[in-house]
Design goal:
Blueprint lengths: L12 H4 L15 E3 L10 H9 L2 E3 L1 H38 L2 H4 L6 H26 L2 H18 L6 H15 L2 H12 L2 H36 L4 H23 L12 H9 L16 H9 L1 H29 L5 H6 L2 H21 L3 H20 L5 H11 L5 H10 L5 H21 L13 H38 L14 H17 L27
Antiparallel strand pairs: 1-2
Helix pairs in contact: 3-5, 3-8, 3-9, 3-10, 3-11, 3-13, 5-7, 5-19, 6-7, 6-10, 8-9, 8-19, 9-10, 9-15, 9-18, 12-19, 13-18, 13-19, 13-20, 16-17, 16-18, 16-20
Length: 554
């Protein structure tokens, strides 16, 4: 590649002549012409690659080809990991129906502790995980933890009392702690903001897929173990799921890249296009390995950090309780154990439908707050009906429970909304870690409002969950108003700098819409005598509050 001329921010003649001879030129007019006149900050590797590449033109067809590769090679291992993680974590829920409670002589709140201790471990380990995600390879860290939690799951059946299985669940939580923060980091560093919602949904959809596959696997292996009589059904479930996780580690290692900069499935030109695609995000490219303490301070002082955290807590608290007790709730309606296990599959499918529908609407109207607010009404309504419908109306109560399961779409939607409204690598990690801590706290507390003395209907748990969803609704509205105010503030900042103040958010447009708008904006800037470059700070490691070009997605 041509050497970068450090004495000027303008590409040299040598750089401008750089060609990618190994790539066949497509016979169509280019849809993107990129000016790569970028400042340096913290030695960003991605920005250096783009400077060396000089001025790049790429077509819509090339853009789609790169996007397709990213989806195949990055989304696929993420989905595999999340399905396995969710089934491994939910194994104790399947086992509650298959006899783990009497087998290990669990009493009082001991079963609730098995659900909560996973998140206590995640809470403790999260700071370490956030630091590692800035300093080291995401892929290697993920694969190491995946192998470790697979070993923990396959060893869990060796426990013969509460103490033994509590330790196993504690270790499981510690090794799973990195998962959601790592995936958010991968999404932020790989796709445009308008593409991030679907990719975040893709790995969160794995929750519902696991909710459909897991009970079927548990039913099959449980029935087989019961018939054979050689091993307890709940122990057979743990053996199977642990083995599945361990054998999947090499697949994930082979497919997942460390970053776009080193992705082996991209050739040299595709790598430049993949990096350039992120310009409209104004979120940096995530290649710096410097921990920025200024960004750390900003993250903790930013009201958005705490707003997202409240929202995630309100999602996780009901989720923590219902995930652990959904089988027992259904069994409490009068169904046998194995029937109750099968009846946990439809709500997982409904959660998937709600999530996909919500995401489709979000991308159509290009707004997230109204969709999240609307989603909260379903679990509120379903849970209230479940609380007050007479116990004798079994089918009606089961239907109410299924409607309430729309809550499964809330947490992925909030994660996606938060992820596209953060910039600055360190700030992203600190904000995500804070959100994840809030989520852990919710998951820890959720199971304890489902008290043993309240079975089989668990009315207290249902009432507390309704309160959480109501608070989520209010916080969603407040966050939307706050970010609208920040957008107005950035508009005035650009005007003060002598730039064009009024701009639309191209990061949530389609490619054609974004390119057409940018062309119009460039012409307007030239006619008005403005000399600033569009998204000039896009690959700087600036935070969302530092970069005047950042647009908050509502």
């Amino acid at each position: 590649m041509a050497a970068y001329n450090a004495s000027s921010l303008t590409p040299t003649d040598e750089e401008k002549k750089l060609e990618f001879d190994h790539v066949e030129r497509l016979e169509q007019e280019p849809v993107a012409a990129i000016d790569l006149d970028l400042p340096s900050h913290h030695g960003e590797v991605a920005a250096d690659i783009l400077r060396e590449a000089g001025e790049v033109e790429y077509t819509e067809r090339e853009d789609k080809a790169v996007l397709r590769k990213l989806d195949i090679w990055v989304v696929t291992p993420m989905v595999i990991i999340y399905i396995l993680q969710q089934m491994d974590k939910s194994a104790v829920g399947y086992s509650s129906i298959l006899g783990i409670i009497p087998s290990l002589k669990l009493v009082g709140t001991q079963y609730s502790w098995l659900a909560s201790v996973v998140y206590i471990a995640q809470l403790v380990v999260q700071p370490l995980s956030s630091y590692v995600l800035v300093k080291y390879s995401v892929k290697k860290w993920l694969c190491f933890n995946m192998l470790c939690w697979g070993i923990v799951v396959i060893c869990t059946p060796l426990a013969h009392d509460f103490k033994g299985i509590l330790i196993a669940r504690l270790l499981l939580g510690a090794f799973e702690a990195t998962l959601a923060p790592s995936f958010l980091a991968i999404v932020q560093q790989t796709w445009r903001r308008r593409e991030q919602t679907w990719r975040t949904v893709a790995w969160n959809v794995s929750n519902s897929i696991a909710g459909m596959i897991g009970p079927l696997l548990a039913y099959g292996v449980g029935k087989g173990a019961e018939k054979a009589g050689t091993i307890s059904p709940w122990r057979a479930v743990f053996f199977l799921l642990g083995a599945m996780t361990i054998v999947s580690v090499p697949v994930v290692w082979y497919m997942m890249p460390d970053s776009l900069v080193t992705a082996k499935f991209l050739n040299e030109r595709e790598r430049v296009i993949a990096l350039e695609r992120l310009r409209d995000n104004n979120m940096g490219a995530g290649s710096t390995t410097v921990w920025d303490w200024g960004q750390t301070k900003e993250a903790f002082l930013d009201p958005k950090t705490w707003g997202w955290s409240v929202m995630l807590f309100c999602c996780a608290f009901p989720s923590g309780g219902l995930a652990a007790f959904s089988g027992l709730l259904i069994a409490g309606l009068g169904f046998t154990n194995f029937t109750a296990l099968v009846l946990t599959i439809p709500p997982a499918a409904l959660g998937l439908i709600f999530l996909l529908t919500a995401t489709f609407i979000t991308n159509k109207i290009k707004l997230r707050a109204p969709v999240i607010a609307g989603l909260t009404l379903f679990p509120i309504g379903g849970a209230l009906a479940l609380r007050f419908v007479p116990a004798s109306q079994v089918n009606t109560r089961l239907g109410c429970f299924y409607i309430a399961y729309a809550y499964a779409a809330l947490q992925p939607s909030v994660y996606a909304w938060a992820g596209i409204n953060q910039a600055g690598k360190t700030k992203q990690r600190v904000t995500t870690a804070t959100m994840f801590v809030a989520s852990c706290l919710g998951n820890i507390g959720g199971p304890f409002v489902y008290r043993a003395q309240d079975k089989p209907h668990y009315y207290l748990g249902i009432e507390v969950d309704v309160g959480c969803w109501a608070l989520l609704l209010v916080t969603t509205i407040l966050m939307a108003f706050h970010m609208h105010r920040l957008n107005k503030k950035n508009e005035k900042r650009r005007e003060t700098l002598g730039h064009v103040g009024k701009r639309l958010d191209t990061s949530i447009m389609t490619l054609k819409e974004a390119m057409a708008y940018n062309e119009r904006l460039k012409k307007d800037m030239e006619e008005a005598g403005h000399v600033e470059k569009l998204n000039a700070n896009a690959f700087e490691d600036l935070t969302d509050l530092q970069n005047p070009d950042f647009h908050f997605a509502l």
